[in-house]
Amino acid sequence: MDNNAKINRMKELNALLEKASAAYYNTGSTIMSDAEYDKLYNELEALEQETGIVLGGSRTQQVGYEVTSYLPKVRHPRRMLSLDKTKSREELADWLGEHKGLLSWKLDGLTICLYYDDGKLTQAVSRGNGEVGEDMTANARHIKGIPAQIPFKGHLALRGEALIGYTDFERVNNTLPEGAEPYKNPRNLASGTLRSLDPRLVAERSVNFFAFALVSADGYENNSFSGRLEWLESMGFQRVYGRLVDKDSVADTVAWFEQAIKDNDFPSDGLVLTFDDVAYGISLGETVHHPRNGIAFKWADETADTTLREIVWSPSRTGLINPIAVFDTVELEGTSVSRASLHNISIMKKLNIAVGDSISVYKANMIIPVVGENKTAHDSDVVEPALPDACPACGEKLTLRSSDDEVETLFCPNHDCPAKHLGRFEHFVSRDAMNIVGVSSSTIEDLVDNGIIRSYRDFFHLSEHKNKIVALEGFGEKSFDQLVSAAEAARETELYRVLYSLGIPNIGRSASRLICAEYTDPTELEKLTAEQLMLIDGIGEVLANDYVEYFSKQRNLDEYHDLLGELKIKEPEQQNTGSGIAGKTFVITGSVHIWSNRSELKAFVEANGGKVASAVSGKTDYLINNDSTSTSGKNKKAMELGVPVITEEEFKAMV
Fold first, then answer.
1. pLDDT tens digits for range 164-196
2. Which CATH class is domain 585-654?
């Protein structure tokens, strides 16, 4: 390749990377995998080194995203750079030399710079493109781990990562409106949430902030990088977890993190090693792209070659029908893997993939299975995927959609498609509802995808689908028998569980208990008026209206009647209204040790005539927390309102 050809290839690579980056950061779309992006980026970097040419606007010179939202723009006091990276443990040890360093999680979220004056948060700015970021102060006030006020009164500047954990990521995706494309990963969700103009989203989606560097603090002197993080923690900030290492221990510590990531709810795409001697790190200076006081360690993805056996189409809660690659089982990162999402039709075309192809798979960030490469060459430039005509869950004719980013997807237009109501079924089988033991979310998805579960009553007719269920991946005779036995055991239940299991908006477990304590006939429940409901202590206008609206819809009534036909309703449990806690309202927080868990303690309170609320208010009589010195929000609120904070032992003595 001559120099002109190399320059043209560099232009092509920059255009591809720019398009993928803009889609990823600004719209949340995925038009290429992380592995493919890194491969193209490394090729561009190598060509720049070969030619000695760095084109204007090259992606190798960019450290973040171009700012495109409507949030106010803010120029950083000094440019925020990206870290240099390596995948070699040996290189980490060589880089550290005779110095000590802090090895910590490289969290996969949105970098934010915080500024405090006189103990109060005055500004929060995203990294943006490194020179100009977005003012996120209004949203930052609703991020967990960012204190609104601190005891330090001088000017303070620090940096950290704002992110959303996998648990909350799944929760948000499960509640998206019909037709909405699910977020591809927690990082996209965090980015979209923090760049929105609605701070309520930040609170609802449980965004967390972890400080990873103190930039400056008037009058505070500490030359230890780890010591500075500990000081920030003492000020009330959440900080990134890290361990001090030297060149002899760094490899073993990397191995420890490698194991720990499997239990980490927060997304991480590697580690960061920083010199603990702050002055030494600063003295090393920086390049145009990265500072020299730290280096990022990226996980070297373990890949495996296998054969694609099938592409199945999985219906989702939002109506999108997602392609799933099914391949010969391989071992990756200590687990057996046989399936991976292909995301959408556009990704399939990019991979030029067909059944029988030899493919390589890996786990992105050591967690999520991904098809990385198709190793089979085809005569056609683009293999046209064989698309299903009908939804696997309901049989409705599918429609083909194309977004502004030219991402093609399949969609089921049927509002009543069971796949769009997976959350209802997960709630229905949960412990506090019908308590069908051992039925996981993945099991429900399999049953819905294969047309076995379409309504609540179907859980009690699984025996009619034995051959189909036994043939599902991960099932067998034993699993089938356990599933049927669990459903049969749930037939005999309390009326409040049935009411709660319906998933009526705002009618939680406590409200269901209150209603069923007043009305014990199942046929009465569907006829209650808002006025009758509001006569019950604890049921307000909003709850009453939601309840009445639910039963006003014929399809909900039909499903309720069908369900009652499968059940045997037990006599209601008698509450101990003469106990020492009858009529009192409690809030429970922190860990428990006398009761197995907080749910068990909550049930005990209610069985003895007490009430359990989710938040401390003027109506709260007691906050149960074994750690009375905790600085949690509930403890602070209790102190403000004069609500007594008691331990489990003190609560037990009251009863």
1. 998 888 888 877 766 667 777 888 888 888 887
2. alpha beta
The 10s digit of each residue's pLDDT in 39-53 is 888 888 888 888 888
3-61 carries CATH number 1.10.287.610:
yes
Helix (H) or strand (E) holding 499: helix 495-501
Q: Which two tokens stand for residue 507?
A: 């009618």
Query: What 8-state DSSP symbol labels residue 78?
Result: S
* Global model pTM greater than 0.85: no
Q: What is the pLDDT of residue 627?
A: 82
pLDDT at residue 93, rounded to an integer: 93
- Highest mean pLDDT (candidates 28-37, 262-271, 277-286, 574-583): 277-286
- Going by C-alpha positions, the residue among 410, 406, 361 that lies closest to residue 385 is 410
**Which of the residue ranges 134-138, 486-490, 593-597 would you say has the lowest mean pLDDT?**
593-597
- Please report, rounded to a whole number, the percentage of residues in the chain having pLDDT higher than 90: 36
CATH 1.10.150.20: does it fit domain 493-569? Answer: yes
In the chain, where are the structural domains located?
3-61, 73-298, 303-395, 418-490, 493-569, 585-654
Q: Where are the beta strands (DSSP E) in 81-218?
A: 84-86, 101-107, 110-117, 120-126, 132-134, 156-163, 208-217
* CATH superfamily, region 418-490: 5' to 3' exonuclease, C-terminal subdomain (1.10.150.20)
Among 480, 163, 180, 155, smallest CA distance to 316 is for 180
Question: How many other CB atoms sit within 10 Å of the CB of residue 338?
Answer: 16
Q: Return d(Cα 636, Cα 108) in angstroms, integer.
A: 31
The verdict on whether 106 is a catalytic residue reads: yes
CB neighbours (10 Å) of residue 89? 16
- DSSP for 205-262, written as a single string: TT-EEEEEEEEEETT----BHHHHHHHHHHTT--B--EEEE-TTTHHHHHHHHHHHGG
Question: Would you state the CATH architecture of domain 73-298?
Answer: 2-Layer Sandwich (3.30)
CA distances from 357 to 302, 307, 326 (A): 20, 6, 11
Matching CATH topology for 418-490 and 493-569?
A: yes
Q: What is the pLDDT of residue 311?
A: 93
Beta bridge partners of 148: none
Three-point CA angle 630, 239, 71, nearest 5°: 110
Tens of pLDDT, residues 193-207: 888 777 888 888 889
Residue where the block lists tokens 């760049």: 195
Q: What is the mean pLDDT of the chain?
A: 86
How far is 275 from 279, CA to CA, in rounded Å? 9
Q: Which fold has domain 303-395?
A: OB fold (Dihydrolipoamide Acetyltransferase, E2P) (2.40.50)
Of 634 and 435, the structure prediction assigns the larger pLDDT to 435
Question: Tell me, what's the pLDDT at 319?
Answer: 83
Q: Which amino acid is at 149?
A: Q
**Which of 6, 19, 106, 652 is an active site residue?**
106
